[in-house]
Amino acid sequence: MPDGLPTEIDLTRPSAARVYDYFLGGAHNFEIDRQLAEQIASMTPNLAATMRSGRDFLRRAVRVLLDAGIDQFLDIGSGIPTVGNVHEVAQGANPKAQVVYVDIDPVAVAHSRDLLAGNELTGVIHADLREPERILAETRQLGLIDFSRPMGILLAGVVHFIPDADRPDDILATLRAAAAPGSFLVISHSTFEDQPQEMLDAQRLSARTATEITLRSRAQITGFFGDWTVVDPGVVHMPLWRPDSPSDVDEHPERFGAFGGVARYDQPGG
Ligand SMILES: C[S@@+](CC[C@H](N)C(=O)[O-])C[C@H]1O[C@@H](n2cnc3c(N)ncnc32)[C@H](O)[C@@H]1O
Is Transferase found in the keyword set (predicted)? Predict the structure, then answer.
């Protein structure tokens, strides 16, 4: 673990970010996280592949945004910077690309700060997606993202941590309202649609992490894009979203348990 690990870390409960890090092959996790990860993995052997599929979807989506000229990214629920971080993909294509990472997990934030020390085009914010105004205010304070220009808002594998009671539609509306025309929104989100019982059982285990997962339908997830234009191929099982090669697509893309989609904010009336 890096020096200066925050003292508020709760080591008595597994953390979603550290369980995810374990599944991605990272080293930033504790025994309590590995135990839960192994328990989930024994119930759903496909889950590690699901997690990697999520990171792959995010990488492909960021590339599409870069091709569209996006050079600034607000990545909320960014996780522990393990394999294929957004800034690596973005700055690999455009060395001037700016990335602000936001996560609720103090371990994810500590590791992000550690890894990004010296990278002046990136910033890290410790905040909760349920406080979008605060995230926007702190992002403005960092001065890395110019809100008058198009940006990419990335919400990969995070909105399912927001229960309906916390009004995810309002949170999304607040974030969309802060973006300039030409901006993009990327969402991947776990679903109950087309899922076997074992996947639904594993979801129940997520109640043991600090944040439980709410599985949603394709229609609900599509609703998070509001009136923005969903780009091809729409909101689909993640491996089906612009695969690098048709041979990358699993025979059962629904097995990965989540939908992914990207939408663009077209100029009203334009
Ligand atoms: C499944 S990981 C996804 C990581 C990364 N976005 C990706 O797709 O590879 C979900 C991340 O969301 C974070 N998270 C969960 N609830 C959150 C909240 N309310 N606000 C901000 N981050 C949250 C977790 O700490 C974790 O790091």
Answer: yes
pLDDT tens-digit readout, 117-130: 889 999 999 999 99
Quick check: CB of 161 below 6 Å from ligand 1?
yes
Which atom of ligand 1 lies closest to the CA of 130? 19
Cα distance between residue 85 and residue 79, in whole Å = 9
Residue 132 beta carbon below 6 angstroms from any ligand 1 atom: no
> Mind listing the pLDDT tens digit for each residue in 216-255?
999 999 999 999 999 999 999 999 999 998 888 888 888 7
Tell me, rounded to whole angstroms, the distance of Cα 141 from its chain centroid: 22
Compute, in angstroms, the gap from residue 268 CA to the centroid of ligand 1: 31
Q: Is the dihedral of CA 235, 239, 245, 250 positive or negative?
A: negative
Cα→Cα distances 129→1, 84, 101, 143, 206, Å = 25, 22, 12, 19, 18
Does the beta carbon of 20 sit less than 6 angstroms from any atom of ligand 1? yes
**CB-based contacts of 225: which residues, under 8 Å, 6+ apart?**
172, 185, 187, 235, 261, 263
**Contact 163/215 with Cβ under 8 angstroms?**
no
Span from the CA of 155 to the centroid of ligand 1 (angstroms):
8
77 C-alpha to ligand 1 centroid (Å) = 3
Give per-residue pLDDT as tens, 123-160.
999 999 999 999 999 999 999 999 999 999 999 999 99
